[in-house]
Write a structure and sequence with these properties.
Blueprint lengths: L1 E10 L2 E7 L15 H13 L12 H13 L15 E8 L5 H4 L12 E8 L4 H22 L12 H12 L2
Length: 177
Amino acid sequence: MHLHSYRLRNFRRLKDAYIELADDISIFVGSNNSGKTSATQAIHAFVTGGRDRFSLYDFSSSCWKIFDKAGEEFNSARPVPDDFSLPSIELDLWFEVAAPDLHLVIPLLPSTAWEGNKVGMRVSLSARNTINLIQNYQDARAKSIAQVAELQPGSQYAPWPHSMTDYLQRELNSEYE
């Protein structure tokens, strides 16, 4: 059994990357800042640790716009739709499995009638609860604005968090799993 290929979404500069690996050895070649290190660090982060291995900076920059827009757009007057979801980092792993190794992947199979030679699994870093996350951000924002107003009426000071990305820089590990 070996890792045949993987697909990585929303990780650093890799918005959606598909990487196919050789049976024996694979070498990543490319210019600086093209994603070679990120392509391997994502697997390492998912395999060796939990959500504390990730930070907001691991999300691709296009995700930051979505986070901030959600923080601004949804409120008590415009609630979060049930089908709305915040970006997640996803890793799809595809293993090529030979008959002698089938016993290793049986827990992953939908049934024992499986007849293929590839088994896939998805691992993702996703919001625990999108609606609660947005509400937690809005509550933290409202509380800090109220505290500043009490201390310095008319102050132009922008307290933490001033945006959803600012909130997630500190709270990602408690809001994502």
